[in-house]
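One example given next:
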Amino acid sequence: MARIVTILMVLSLAGAARAQEDYGFEFSKAGTGGFQFLKIGMGAREVAMGEAVAGVSQDANAVFWNPAGLPFVESYQAAFTHNAWIAGSRVDAFVGVFPALSFVIGVHVMQFAIEEFEETTVDAPDGTGRMVNAGDLNIGLTVSRRFSDRFTLGLQAKYVREELDGVAVNNLLFDVGAMYYIGFHHLRLAFVVQHFGADRAYFVEKFRMPLLFRVGAADDVIDTEDLRTTVALDLVHPTDNTEWLNAGAEVTLMKLLALRAGYRFLHEDGQLSFGGGLSGADLLPIDVRIDYAYASFGEALGATHRISLIVGF
Protein backbone atom coordinates (compact mmCIF):
# COMPACT_ATOMS: atom_id res chain seq x y z
CA MET A 1 0.00 0.00 0.00
CA ALA A 2 2.83 2.40 0.86
CA ARG A 3 4.47 1.99 -2.53
CA ILE A 4 1.15 2.61 -4.31
CA VAL A 5 0.70 5.85 -2.37
CA THR A 6 4.26 6.89 -3.22
CA ILE A 7 3.70 6.25 -6.92
CA LEU A 8 0.49 8.29 -6.82
CA MET A 9 2.39 11.13 -5.13
CA VAL A 10 5.02 11.08 -7.88
CA LEU A 11 2.37 11.13 -10.58
CA SER A 12 0.50 13.92 -8.79
CA LEU A 13 3.70 15.99 -8.64
CA ALA A 14 4.22 15.46 -12.36
CA GLY A 15 0.64 16.46 -13.13
CA ALA A 16 0.84 19.55 -10.94
CA ALA A 17 4.12 20.63 -12.45
CA ARG A 18 2.78 20.12 -15.95
CA ALA A 19 -0.28 22.19 -15.13
CA GLN A 20 1.90 25.00 -13.82
CA GLU A 21 3.87 25.01 -17.09
CA ASP A 22 0.80 25.23 -19.36
CA TYR A 23 1.28 28.74 -20.73
CA GLY A 24 -1.43 28.52 -23.37
CA PHE A 25 0.99 28.92 -26.26
CA GLU A 26 -0.53 28.98 -29.74
CA PHE A 27 2.90 28.55 -31.33
CA SER A 28 5.77 26.11 -31.03
CA LYS A 29 7.35 25.95 -27.56
CA ALA A 30 10.72 24.89 -28.97
CA GLY A 31 13.63 26.83 -27.50
CA THR A 32 11.56 28.58 -24.83
CA GLY A 33 13.47 27.08 -21.87
CA GLY A 34 16.98 27.67 -20.63
CA PHE A 35 19.83 25.34 -19.57
CA GLN A 36 19.34 23.26 -22.72
CA PHE A 37 22.60 21.41 -22.11
CA LEU A 38 20.73 19.34 -19.50
CA LYS A 39 18.95 17.55 -22.36
CA ILE A 40 22.19 16.19 -23.82
CA GLY A 41 22.16 12.44 -23.23
CA MET A 42 24.93 11.16 -20.95
CA GLY A 43 26.07 7.54 -20.88
CA ALA A 44 26.98 5.68 -24.06
CA ARG A 45 24.74 2.70 -23.27
CA GLU A 46 21.70 4.89 -22.77
CA VAL A 47 22.28 6.94 -25.92
CA ALA A 48 22.88 3.85 -28.06
CA MET A 49 19.45 2.57 -26.97
CA GLY A 50 17.77 5.70 -28.30
CA GLU A 51 17.52 7.16 -24.77
CA ALA A 52 14.63 4.77 -24.01
CA VAL A 53 16.14 4.03 -20.62
CA ALA A 54 13.91 5.36 -17.82
CA GLY A 55 13.28 1.71 -16.89
CA VAL A 56 16.65 0.37 -18.07
CA SER A 57 19.43 2.51 -16.59
CA GLN A 58 20.37 0.80 -13.33
CA ASP A 59 24.00 1.82 -12.89
CA ALA A 60 25.80 5.05 -11.97
CA ASN A 61 24.59 6.86 -15.10
CA ALA A 62 21.00 6.52 -13.88
CA VAL A 63 21.51 9.92 -12.21
CA PHE A 64 21.03 11.48 -15.67
CA TRP A 65 17.88 9.50 -16.55
CA ASN A 66 16.01 8.18 -13.52
CA PRO A 67 17.35 8.48 -9.95
CA ALA A 68 15.24 5.44 -9.02
CA GLY A 69 17.73 3.27 -10.95
CA LEU A 70 20.52 3.78 -8.41
CA PRO A 71 19.32 1.25 -5.78
CA PHE A 72 20.27 -1.54 -8.20
CA VAL A 73 23.94 -0.60 -7.69
CA GLU A 74 25.07 -2.94 -4.91
CA SER A 75 28.65 -1.72 -4.44
CA TYR A 76 30.87 1.30 -4.99
CA GLN A 77 30.78 2.43 -8.60
CA ALA A 78 32.31 5.20 -10.69
CA ALA A 79 31.34 6.24 -14.21
CA PHE A 80 33.12 8.48 -16.70
CA THR A 81 31.58 9.71 -19.97
CA HIS A 82 33.11 11.74 -22.79
CA ASN A 83 30.78 13.13 -25.44
CA ALA A 84 32.18 14.63 -28.65
CA TRP A 85 29.22 16.93 -29.26
CA ILE A 86 28.24 19.02 -32.28
CA ALA A 87 30.11 22.07 -33.63
CA GLY A 88 33.34 21.09 -31.88
CA SER A 89 31.83 21.22 -28.39
CA ARG A 90 32.19 18.49 -25.79
CA VAL A 91 30.49 17.19 -22.67
CA ASP A 92 32.30 15.32 -19.89
CA ALA A 93 30.80 13.75 -16.79
CA PHE A 94 31.81 11.88 -13.66
CA VAL A 95 29.48 9.95 -11.34
CA GLY A 96 30.33 8.31 -8.04
CA VAL A 97 27.88 5.94 -6.29
CA PHE A 98 28.10 4.31 -2.87
CA PRO A 99 25.70 2.52 -0.49
CA ALA A 100 24.92 4.21 2.83
CA LEU A 101 22.76 2.31 5.32
CA SER A 102 19.51 1.51 3.47
CA PHE A 103 20.13 4.16 0.81
CA VAL A 104 22.28 4.46 -2.29
CA ILE A 105 23.94 7.85 -2.78
CA GLY A 106 25.17 9.31 -6.04
CA VAL A 107 27.22 12.44 -6.75
CA HIS A 108 27.89 13.75 -10.23
CA VAL A 109 29.64 16.52 -12.13
CA MET A 110 28.82 17.32 -15.75
CA GLN A 111 30.53 20.02 -17.80
CA PHE A 112 29.64 21.35 -21.24
CA ALA A 113 32.34 23.32 -23.06
CA ILE A 114 32.65 24.90 -26.49
CA GLU A 115 35.65 25.99 -28.47
CA GLU A 116 36.79 29.54 -27.81
CA PHE A 117 35.53 31.87 -30.54
CA GLU A 118 36.21 35.42 -31.71
CA GLU A 119 33.82 38.20 -30.77
CA THR A 120 31.93 39.91 -33.61
CA THR A 121 29.97 43.17 -33.51
CA VAL A 122 27.95 45.30 -35.90
CA ASP A 123 31.00 47.49 -36.50
CA ALA A 124 33.35 44.48 -36.76
CA PRO A 125 31.41 41.63 -38.38
CA ASP A 126 34.65 39.82 -39.23
CA GLY A 127 35.81 39.82 -35.61
CA THR A 128 37.22 42.19 -33.03
CA GLY A 129 40.22 40.07 -32.11
CA ARG A 130 38.84 39.41 -28.60
CA MET A 131 38.20 35.76 -27.79
CA VAL A 132 35.05 34.66 -25.97
CA ASN A 133 34.52 31.66 -23.68
CA ALA A 134 31.28 29.92 -22.71
CA GLY A 135 30.24 26.79 -20.86
CA ASP A 136 27.81 25.06 -18.51
CA LEU A 137 28.12 23.14 -15.25
CA ASN A 138 25.88 20.62 -13.49
CA ILE A 139 26.73 19.33 -9.98
CA GLY A 140 24.26 17.02 -8.29
CA LEU A 141 23.45 14.81 -5.30
CA THR A 142 21.08 11.84 -5.63
CA VAL A 143 19.52 9.86 -2.78
CA SER A 144 17.65 6.68 -3.65
CA ARG A 145 16.19 3.68 -1.89
CA ARG A 146 14.69 0.28 -2.60
CA PHE A 147 11.41 0.08 -0.67
CA SER A 148 10.67 -3.51 -1.72
CA ASP A 149 11.88 -6.09 -4.23
CA ARG A 150 9.66 -4.36 -6.81
CA PHE A 151 9.66 -0.64 -6.04
CA THR A 152 12.45 1.97 -5.93
CA LEU A 153 12.37 5.74 -5.52
CA GLY A 154 15.03 8.39 -6.07
CA LEU A 155 15.40 12.13 -5.46
CA GLN A 156 18.04 14.47 -6.84
CA ALA A 157 19.10 18.06 -6.21
CA LYS A 158 21.53 19.75 -8.59
CA TYR A 159 23.23 23.09 -8.98
CA VAL A 160 23.39 24.29 -12.59
CA ARG A 161 25.36 27.20 -14.00
CA GLU A 162 25.50 28.71 -17.48
CA GLU A 163 28.17 31.25 -18.44
CA LEU A 164 28.79 33.34 -21.55
CA ASP A 165 31.71 35.77 -21.72
CA GLY A 166 31.87 36.27 -17.97
CA VAL A 167 28.11 36.68 -17.46
CA ALA A 168 26.61 33.74 -15.55
CA VAL A 169 23.21 32.56 -14.36
CA ASN A 170 22.66 29.67 -11.94
CA ASN A 171 19.83 27.74 -10.32
CA LEU A 172 18.92 24.82 -8.04
CA LEU A 173 16.89 22.11 -9.77
CA PHE A 174 15.26 18.87 -8.64
CA ASP A 175 14.51 15.43 -10.14
CA VAL A 176 12.27 12.68 -8.80
CA GLY A 177 11.87 9.19 -10.22
CA ALA A 178 10.17 5.89 -9.47
CA MET A 179 10.57 2.39 -10.87
CA TYR A 180 8.16 -0.49 -10.33
CA TYR A 181 8.39 -4.15 -11.37
CA ILE A 182 4.77 -5.15 -11.96
CA GLY A 183 5.31 -8.89 -11.32
CA PHE A 184 4.82 -10.05 -14.91
CA HIS A 185 7.96 -11.47 -16.51
CA HIS A 186 10.67 -8.75 -16.03
CA LEU A 187 8.40 -5.86 -17.01
CA ARG A 188 8.98 -2.61 -15.14
CA LEU A 189 7.44 0.84 -15.38
CA ALA A 190 9.26 4.11 -14.72
CA PHE A 191 8.09 7.65 -14.00
CA VAL A 192 10.47 10.62 -13.92
CA VAL A 193 10.23 14.40 -13.48
CA GLN A 194 13.46 16.25 -14.32
CA HIS A 195 14.82 19.79 -14.06
CA PHE A 196 12.09 21.21 -11.79
CA GLY A 197 13.01 24.67 -10.54
CA ALA A 198 12.24 28.37 -10.44
CA ASP A 199 12.43 30.69 -13.45
CA ARG A 200 15.58 32.73 -13.95
CA ALA A 201 16.54 35.90 -15.85
CA TYR A 202 19.48 36.44 -18.18
CA PHE A 203 20.13 40.19 -18.18
CA VAL A 204 16.48 41.35 -18.32
CA GLU A 205 14.99 38.41 -20.22
CA LYS A 206 13.21 35.84 -18.05
CA PHE A 207 13.26 32.16 -19.01
CA ARG A 208 11.88 28.89 -17.64
CA MET A 209 13.62 25.66 -16.77
CA PRO A 210 13.64 22.75 -19.30
CA LEU A 211 11.13 20.74 -17.25
CA LEU A 212 10.86 17.20 -18.59
CA PHE A 213 8.55 14.23 -17.93
CA ARG A 214 9.42 10.63 -18.80
CA VAL A 215 7.15 7.60 -18.68
CA GLY A 216 8.91 4.39 -19.61
CA ALA A 217 8.46 0.64 -19.84
CA ALA A 218 11.13 -2.03 -20.27
CA ASP A 219 11.33 -5.80 -20.27
CA ASP A 220 14.02 -8.45 -20.54
CA VAL A 221 12.13 -10.57 -23.06
CA ILE A 222 14.92 -13.17 -23.07
CA ASP A 223 16.94 -13.67 -19.89
CA THR A 224 19.20 -16.72 -19.76
CA GLU A 225 22.74 -17.36 -18.59
CA ASP A 226 24.18 -16.75 -22.06
CA LEU A 227 21.68 -14.34 -23.65
CA ARG A 228 19.67 -11.38 -22.47
CA THR A 229 17.51 -9.26 -24.76
CA THR A 230 16.01 -6.03 -23.43
CA VAL A 231 13.46 -3.83 -25.19
CA ALA A 232 12.26 -0.44 -23.95
CA LEU A 233 9.98 2.47 -24.77
CA ASP A 234 9.97 5.99 -23.26
CA LEU A 235 7.40 8.70 -23.84
CA VAL A 236 9.07 12.08 -23.27
CA HIS A 237 7.11 15.28 -22.64
CA PRO A 238 9.22 18.47 -22.43
CA THR A 239 7.48 21.69 -21.49
CA ASP A 240 9.56 23.64 -24.02
CA ASN A 241 9.03 21.41 -27.06
CA THR A 242 6.72 18.79 -28.54
CA GLU A 243 6.55 15.21 -27.26
CA TRP A 244 8.56 12.38 -28.76
CA LEU A 245 8.88 8.62 -28.34
CA ASN A 246 12.13 6.75 -27.72
CA ALA A 247 12.53 3.08 -28.59
CA GLY A 248 15.56 0.94 -27.92
CA ALA A 249 16.89 -2.60 -27.69
CA GLU A 250 19.95 -4.33 -26.23
CA VAL A 251 21.29 -7.83 -26.79
CA THR A 252 23.91 -9.11 -24.32
CA LEU A 253 25.90 -12.25 -25.13
CA MET A 254 27.66 -14.32 -22.46
CA LYS A 255 27.57 -11.28 -20.11
CA LEU A 256 30.51 -10.05 -22.13
CA LEU A 257 29.41 -8.34 -25.35
CA ALA A 258 26.41 -6.02 -25.74
CA LEU A 259 24.93 -4.70 -29.00
CA ARG A 260 22.45 -1.83 -28.91
CA ALA A 261 20.26 0.26 -31.21
CA GLY A 262 17.57 2.87 -30.81
CA TYR A 263 15.39 5.42 -32.54
CA ARG A 264 13.71 8.63 -31.40
CA PHE A 265 10.36 9.02 -33.13
CA LEU A 266 8.79 12.47 -33.69
CA HIS A 267 12.13 14.09 -32.80
CA GLU A 268 13.62 16.66 -35.15
CA ASP A 269 17.23 15.47 -34.84
CA GLY A 270 19.38 12.69 -33.47
CA GLN A 271 16.84 10.02 -34.37
CA LEU A 272 19.03 6.98 -35.08
CA SER A 273 21.64 5.63 -32.68
CA PHE A 274 23.55 2.43 -32.14
CA GLY A 275 26.57 1.11 -30.27
CA GLY A 276 27.98 -1.63 -28.13
CA GLY A 277 29.86 -2.49 -25.00
CA LEU A 278 32.31 -4.90 -23.40
CA SER A 279 32.13 -6.09 -19.80
CA GLY A 280 34.96 -7.65 -17.84
CA ALA A 281 32.95 -8.55 -14.74
CA ASP A 282 33.58 -12.30 -15.13
CA LEU A 283 37.19 -11.93 -16.28
CA LEU A 284 38.69 -9.30 -13.96
CA PRO A 285 38.84 -8.89 -10.17
CA ILE A 286 36.81 -5.69 -10.49
CA ASP A 287 33.67 -4.96 -12.50
CA VAL A 288 34.64 -2.95 -15.60
CA ARG A 289 32.46 -1.98 -18.56
CA ILE A 290 33.27 0.20 -21.55
CA ASP A 291 30.54 1.41 -23.92
CA TYR A 292 30.39 3.32 -27.18
CA ALA A 293 27.47 5.10 -28.87
CA TYR A 294 26.99 6.71 -32.27
CA ALA A 295 24.09 9.11 -32.85
CA SER A 296 23.35 10.75 -36.20
CA PHE A 297 22.15 14.35 -36.39
CA GLY A 298 21.83 14.51 -40.16
CA GLU A 299 23.96 16.19 -42.82
CA ALA A 300 23.78 19.64 -41.24
CA LEU A 301 25.13 18.73 -37.79
CA GLY A 302 26.85 15.42 -38.46
CA ALA A 303 27.26 12.64 -35.91
CA THR A 304 28.14 12.52 -32.24
CA HIS A 305 30.26 9.93 -30.44
CA ARG A 306 30.15 8.95 -26.78
CA ILE A 307 32.45 6.73 -24.75
CA SER A 308 31.67 5.62 -21.21
CA LEU A 309 33.69 3.70 -18.64
CA ILE A 310 32.04 2.21 -15.54
CA VAL A 311 34.11 0.65 -12.76
CA GLY A 312 32.65 -1.20 -9.78
CA PHE A 313 34.52 -2.08 -6.60
Q: What stands out?
A: DSSP finds three helices and 18 strands in the chain.
